[in-house]
Amino acid sequence: MGYQKEKIKNKNKIFKYISLNKIFNKQDISENLNLSFPTVTKYIEEFLEQNIIEEIGIKNSKHNRPSITYKFNPNSLYSIGIKLEVNRVSFIIINILGETLRKNEIHNNFYNNQNFSKYIVQQLKIFLQGFEEQNKLIGIGISLPGIVDDTFKKFEIGTNFQIFSQDMKFIEEEMKLPIFLMNEANAAIFGEYILNNFTYKNLAFISIDTGIGAGIVLNNKIYEGDNFKAGEIGHISIVPEGRECTCGNNGCFERYCSNTALINDFKENFDLEIHTLNDIFFNNLHTTPIGEEILKKYTKYLAQAIQTLLLIFDLNKVIIGGEICFYKDYFNLEENLKKLVFNNLFCKDKNILEFSKYGESSNLIGAGLAPFRNWS
């Protein structure tokens, strides 16, 4: 087992080096990564077979010796990412570096829908029409808002969906590609970690969508817990005897800070058709006294959750992701959050907190990267 882990670690190191440097030779890799020449040769040959790299000729190395030079080919392989929410499904095709080739989203209600796997396959086949390099696809990563079991390919619990223990193997069998299931927050933090080339050992990603979850990295590894339930912070009760939640408890965090909760708060207070966050901010409802009060409470509850994560895990970084990232400047969310979060002896460094530059796409991209994760 230890030998196998070492092999994977070496392959990951080499892949990271070639993806960052683009043009290289074996000597460069061996010296910079402190790996033996035979080890480097083994993985170079493997990457050549997969067309992940290609020879571009013989050039002098930095030691002025002729050496075969290689070029990284990010478009040698592609993968599909799927993000499922209660009211929409998104699709993406990316290359090894996470660069987007094609993207689409479809609005549909999946609440209590036991046949959503068939719908996904149907729409995925439409999405792939006209994509001429399907032979380069190596797998499908799927981001799901709930508890997943990737070993048995099951969506175990999706409280907002009212779906329990949904078998996802149908997608794998129908598409003839392996599927990789990930909790949405874990998919997001995986995407952020790879795309930003993070070196933080301990960080968390708070995913704010129709529900709320947290992807947590401890000592450079995604922490899922013994039963894959770690990070379900959306179901931590923050208001005693508060709003009823689909999980069976009351006062859950996501009943106050999810996109759905925020939209519902504005719906209840304004006699307008409000279906999206854009409806709130485009109509300047956030500038009214009532709107300001709603967002003040929203910010307070969000700060409470962030502070809790920092106090429990002593994190290097907390990233907030989701559609709310696009609207944070409308009501000074970042500034106001930092005032509330970093107001005690234990939480001082305001640079710990940041908003994702990928907004609500982090988990979609992260899902797409899942088939490549043994190289990341």
Portion of residues in beta strands equals 15-25%
Number of helices, counting only DSSP H or I runs of 4 residues or more: 12
The whole-angstrom Rg is 23 Å
Give start-end ranges of low-pLDDT stretches: none
Average pLDDT figure: 88
Based on helices, strands and strand pairing, what is the structural class? alpha/beta
Secondary structure: number of strands: 16
What would the principal axes of the Cα set say about the shape? globular
How far from one another are the termini?
A: 20 Å
Succession of helices and strands: HEHHEEEEEHEEEEHEHEEEHHHHEHEH
Largest sheet: 5 strands, mixed
- Numbering strands along the chain, what is their spatial order in the largest sheet? 6-5-4-7-11
- The percentage helix is 25-40%
What would you note in describing this structure?
The model has no long low-confidence stretch (mean pLDDT 88). The chain has helices at residues 2-21, 26-33, 37-49, 116-128, 169-175, 184-195, 254-257, 259-269, 277-282, 289-313, 333-341, 362-369; strands at 23-25, 53-60, 66-72, 78-84, 88-95, 100-107, 137-144, 147-149, 154-158, 163-167, 179-183, 203-208, 212-218, 221-222, 317-322, 353-355. A hairpin with a 5-residue loop joins strand 2 (53-60) and strand 3. With 376 residues, it is of the alpha/beta class. The chain has a five-stranded mixed beta sheet with strand order 6-5-4-7-11, with helices on both faces. The protein is built from twelve helices and 16 strands. The chain is 36% helix and 24% strand. Helix 4 runs parallel beside helix 5 (169-175) and helix 6 (184-195) crosses helix 12. It starts with a helix and ends in a 7-residue tail after the last helix. It is globular.
